[in-house]
């Protein structure tokens, strides 16, 4: 029997004829059995000797069914893509074959592979196996790096030095500004994206940012006229616009000692001669950019104060609502060349602000003083009073009202306000209401409903409240006394109510004797104060009534009733 797959599983079955038994056996592999097993492929000699010493020799050959042999042709992946392939060739063994790849595929040949190692085990029909590992390499995409030179002072003098590594030359370059050179020059600040493509079509993209050394801005020049008597310190920075912070102030004109503060940028004109005074604001530029300077011309005039007229207004009273932030300002009538100082007193007091309007937050009286824009010390003799009042609306409605289904009931609402006297009403929802804009609507509903009412007075202040309308669909009324004297009033002890289908009565005297028992669907039927045709004694009796409603639900009522003749 031949060996298989290169294993030691061959065998030789020897048969001896003739001679004189017993026989001895001597094999070339030193074994002495007649038959031998577990043999690898090869030639085996045996010498057989009988009892008379006669011998015979034979050579047996154990062949082998070899395992398959494998070879591959590999196509590498490109640009990091999964486009590699392995073409496997199987020789030897016995077809058909099965294939088990390390990536779980079972085809002979593989395609659409990323780079990596792939091991395959091939098994032939005899179960012989062979294993091989194939490596799919990759032609990597290019890698990019840049050295950027920033632009300066807003100029187009930046540059990008691009370096390409890897991939396969030659390369092509596509920049976001349409240029196709590897390196770019004469660039303004901004972002620049480049896509590099190598000879294999592999691409790489990178974005480079060209910065800029900013140009400083000292702002727009300014000017102002003031009176030589003005005690108001001029904030020079208020006279220029759009300036960068961090600059320094210089006085280009001769000024009185202590009147100019270069750090704070202030100038006190009082005590100076009439004329034009020049000041500069200088912002130091970052190298290689230059400095920037703006100029303020302050003209000092010899002038006499003519006090502005007392402020006037079209509305001296502002009303706000309690709990809200007031957003309505006090507004004097606009007068050219005049602004206003705002105080908390008619004379003296605290300065609350300066400007054409003032918005107060706390109820009280406030005062506006007219002031000349050109001479802040020139003010009106009299201040105008403005008043901030607060209004609050109070609304009262019942929390809950009870009614029967479809039975109208009126809601009575009461409103008052600290200032308001005229009110508008809004009830919601509208369904079931006799009106939605009246104070006391009638309500007709068949189920529990919550109504919301909002009241607004003429000043826009409001209050909101809710009313719950509870609809009762079951009513049971049981008297606690009756007088069956035949006068037609309260002659029968009986149950009345709403949605009652049946009543079961049980009435007992004080000794526990049942005086009356009845089950009826007629609510006009009840106990007439007799027992077996005889009038019962006046006194207190105990009753038990089982009420069955229209929906079939039952309820037990118990209590005392007094019989009066």
Can you characterise this structure?
The model has no long low-confidence stretch (mean pLDDT 93). The chain is mainly β and 565 residues long. It is flat and about 150 Å long. The strands form 18 sheets. A five-stranded mixed β-sheet has the order 31-35-34-32-33, with no helix packed on it. A five-stranded mixed β-sheet has the order 45-52-51-47-48, with no helix packed on it. A four-stranded mixed β-sheet has the order 24-30-29-26, with no helix packed on it.
For the residues shown, what is the average pLDDT?
A: 93
Shape: flat
Specify the biggest β-sheet: 5 strands, mixed
Q: How are the strands ordered across the major sheet?
A: 31-35-34-32-33
Count all strands and give the number: 52
DSSP helix count? 0
Low-confidence runs (pLDDT<50, min 5 residues)?
none
Q: Helicity level, as a percent range? A: under 10%
Structural class category? mainly beta
DSSP strand content: over 45%
């Amino acid at each position: 029997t031949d060996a298989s797959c290169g294993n030691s599983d061959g065998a030789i079955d020897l048969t001896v004829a003739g001679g004189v038994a017993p026989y001895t056996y001597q094999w070339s592999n030193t074994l002495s059995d007649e038959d031998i097993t577990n043999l690898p492929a090869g030639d085996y000699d045996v010498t057989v000797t009988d009892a008379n010493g006669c011998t015979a020799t034979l050579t047996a050959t154990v062949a082998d069914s070899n395992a398959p042999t494998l070879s591959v042709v590999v196509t590498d992946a490109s640009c990091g893509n999964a486009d590699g392939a392995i073409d496997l060739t199987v020789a030897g063994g016995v077809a058909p074959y099965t294939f088990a790849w390390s990536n779980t595929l079972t085809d002979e040949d593989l395609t659409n592979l990323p780079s990596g190692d792939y091991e395959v085990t091939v098994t032939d029909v005899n179960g012989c196996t062979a294993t091989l590992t194939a490596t799919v390499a990759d032609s990597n995409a290019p890698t990019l790096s840049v050295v950027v030179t920033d632009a300066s002072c807003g100029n187009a003098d930046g540059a990008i030095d691009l370096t390409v590594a890897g991939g396969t030359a030659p390369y092509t370059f596509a920049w976001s500004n349409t240029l196709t050179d590897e390196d770019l020059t004469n660039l303004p600040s901004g972002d620049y994206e480049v896509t590099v493509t190598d000879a294999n079509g592999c691409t790489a993209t990178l974005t480079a940012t060209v910065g800029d050394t900013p140009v400083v801005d000292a702002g727009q020049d300014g000017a102002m006229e003031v009176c030589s008597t003005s005690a108001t310190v001029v904030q020079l920075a208020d006279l220029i616009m759009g300036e960068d912070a961090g600059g320094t102030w210089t006085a280009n004109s001769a000024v009185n000692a202590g009147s100019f503060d270069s750090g704070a940028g202030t100038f006190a004109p009082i005590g100076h001669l009439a004329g034009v005074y020049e000041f500069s604001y200088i912002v130091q530029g970052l190298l290689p950019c230059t400095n920037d300077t703006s100029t303020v011309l302050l003209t000092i005039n010899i002038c006499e104060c003519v006090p502005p007229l007392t402020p006037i207004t079209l509305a001296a009273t502002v009303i706000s609502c309690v709990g809200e932030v007031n957003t309505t300002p006090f507004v004097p009538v606009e007068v050219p060349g005049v602004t206003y100082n705002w105080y908390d007193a008619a004379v003296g007091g605290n300065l609350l602000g300066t400007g054409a309007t003032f918005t107060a937050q706390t109820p009280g009286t406030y005062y506006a003083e007219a002031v000349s824009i050109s001479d802040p010390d020139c003010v009106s003799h009299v201040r105008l009073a403005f008043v901030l009042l607060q209004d609050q609306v109070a609304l009262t409605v019942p929390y809950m009202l009870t009614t029967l289904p479809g039975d109208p009931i009126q809601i009575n609402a009461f409103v008052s306000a600290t200032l308001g006297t005229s009110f508008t009403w809004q009830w919601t929802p509208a369904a079931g209401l006799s009106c939605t804009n009246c104070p006391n609507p009638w309500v007709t509903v068949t189920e529990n409903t919550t109504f919301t009412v909002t009241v607004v007075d003429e000043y826009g202040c409001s209050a909101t409240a809710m009313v719950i309308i509870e609809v009762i669909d079951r009513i049971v009324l049981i008297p606690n006394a009756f007088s069956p004297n035949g006068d037609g009033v309260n002659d029968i002890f009986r149950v009345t109510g709403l949605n009652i289908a049946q009543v079961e009565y049980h009435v007992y005297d004080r000794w526990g004797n049942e005086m009356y028992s009845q089950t009826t669907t007629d609510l006009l039927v009840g106990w007439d104060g007799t027992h077996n045709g005889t009038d019962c004694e006046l006194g207190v009796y105990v009753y038990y009534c089982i009420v069955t409603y229209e929906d079939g639900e039952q309820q037990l009522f118990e209590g005392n009733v007094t019989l009066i003749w």
